[in-house]
What does this fold into?
Amino acid sequence: MASIVLFVLLRLLPGDPANALVSVGADPAQIEAARRQVGSDLPLAQQFLQFLTSLARLDLGTSFVSRTSVLQEILARLAVTVPLTLLSFMLAVLIAVPLGILSAVKAERWFGALISVISQLGIAIPVFWVGILLVTLFAVNLRLFPSGGFPPQGWAAPFEALRALFLPIVTIAVVMSASLLRYVRSATQDVLGSDYLRTARALGSGFAEALIRHGIRNGAVPVVSILGIELATTLLGAVVVERVFTLPGLGSMLLLAIEQRDYPNIQGVLFISTLLVLLIGFFADLAQRWIDPRLREKLGNIRR
Amino acid sequence: MTRMRTRKNHGLLIAATAMLVLAAFGRAGAQEGEADAAAVIRIGSLYEPQNLDNTAGAGQGINEAFNGNVYEGLFQLEDNGEVVPKLALEHEMSDDGLTYTFTLQPDVTFHSGDPLTSADVKYSIERVASENSKSSRKKSLSTISSIETPDERTVVVRLSERSISLPYNLTYVWIVNDEATDLTSSEDGTGPYRLDAWRRGSSISLVSFEDYWGDAPANGGVTFNYFTEATSLNNALLTGAVDIITSVQSPDSLAQFQDNPAFIVTEGQSTTKEVLAYNDRVEPFSNVKVRKAIARAIDKERLLSSIWGDYGTLIGSFVPPTDPWYVDLTDVDPYDPESAKQLLAEAGYADGFTFTLETPNYDPHPIVAQFVQSELAKVGITVNINIITANEWYTKIYQAHDFQATLQEHVNHRDIVFYGNPDFYWGYNNPEVVELIASSETSASEAEQVEKLKEANRIIAEDAASGWLYLYPQIVVSSATVSGYPVNGLNSQFFAYDITKRAQ
It folds into this structure.
């Protein structure tokens, strides 16, 4: 269904994929040859049929412009995008979870309030602005990290690659942890007001012990579902960050493909990212079930 | 128009000073640290090729990375505009100008190890002229009627009519191995470098080819690093992630390099023209007086300096100073709003008119469009700006000719020939110019060719066939530790083999 919408939307864009191949000075015969090669001279119905059959065979085809296999190109790009997304996600969790709990537990104190205010700010500022700010500060002025790009050797030079990804990771993590923090905070607040925590305290356990033994597990369930959504958003939001830092990832591939009307590349990237988003949702679901046995029982009931 | 001339000289002066500075640094370098022959030169560019084959629509980026570096032609267009033999050791033209005989350099091998033979040359020329070729120069080779290969080192090209620019046109023809199977993602050329790796969206790295037939490169290899944003590219040079920027496109960023002794800013000769092209087929642009009125209503000097400051050059026609048929025509239609109004009245548009200006969405066109809009408002012409993408431009304007006026940058060297084609997108049709341009190609001597094209050049300027707003500056910025790079970037080429980097 999504692919049909995609096919129609792409064809509604003015322009022609053959245009990326010819330049000023080409004669009409050359332009026709280019259109024949990419198939944009065929009637729409026929183009659509070809699109569906190749999709059914899971064949993503070859790029109109670079003539390389779309799947291979996507795999090469994922080597940048997947580590970028996962590492920034992990960093965001490391920042958001402790700070979120702290700001809920110490809501009355000044730093609890301060954390809330800063996270509000973090939600309001755009990703690219954080990126440009970090580049100016840490790359141009302090010269600690490269201002952009990815080493030509790729992950064969792991230190260089990590250094190149450092600022982009921090950029995403800063923005993402701001919104995550708010969810963690409200989940913690729910837990703090719960009966089971009061009971645990009444039975003699310390506040920290009660929170860790009973609170985290209960509070984690709604947070994990949010985490899944956030992770999916980051994957798609990498478009912006990859552009700011000139990273050869999936986002920059998609952007270039749209500019060039390179339909196979656009369709391939969107197909794979949809797949990844679905997978993330699936794993978030599994994680929730693993954390909370009640969810597992519910599923069992339905089956019966 | 003495002011304008001063401006031009000013530009030359800057270039000359920069060269002197360069030379001075070069000498100082010898004392500080020797040129490091193993150093890898990191080049920063905004033009990543779309694929690796210049006949498969690779874009201008491939000329920058591969011309002269990975692939060589029978001839090469040097950075100073001169056409010199490269893989052709000798060449001979018959008296009637219809037969060219080329003798190839001996002992040349491709990167794959195959020797260069006349069959490869024949294959390479035919590849550019073939049906599926996307080369923008395909048409210029249409006079070739046959190619013969009497022996391994001799190629005989027969023409249907004289073609004085054949050696020049052959600078666009890469000599590739006729056995090569995949030229869109790998290569097999004869140049001083071979392709090491292409990381799409990021970089192309070239390493020295050990069996190169000529002089080995002065460096250990080059990496072209590709950027999508000018700001990121500038940051990369500032932070030492690249050594050199092939072509600076953001005027605002120059200040940070100009006053810094760690960098060298060089202005070379450019061939990129900012053109306000009218659709000369349609009213009111079919009227010469209207076109001349528009040319006189726009203060190009103010436009150029507001965009580029002291850089760039004003031009009075489509021909840049590096083309052999350049004539200074800036005083044909000088800035004069009063006479513009008068011309409009004579043409029957005393109350002005309204037109739509199709404006590509990338720099500098939107700014230029606004400037044109405000200048023309002063003489009573209303301009509606319609922003379109480069891809739409090609379909709507280049192919369908569905427009009134548009802005476009024209990058090539020697492209006055477009005015000799009445079917070109701007639809300029003057039989005299068509005849001059066609017959210039069949000239027996270069002097005759130059004379004819100069005449054509004067006529298109008198006709104000299009609005030639200015010539972009060609600015190369490098770290002070590198030298020996080309500064003119003709046809987007960037020869890397003479670049050296001093050890720090």
Notes: Chain A touches chain B through 51 residues (CB under 8 Å). Chain A has two domains: 1-57, 77-295. Chain A has a mean pLDDT of 82. Residues 77-295 of chain A form a domain with the MetI-like fold fold (CATH 1.10.3720.10).
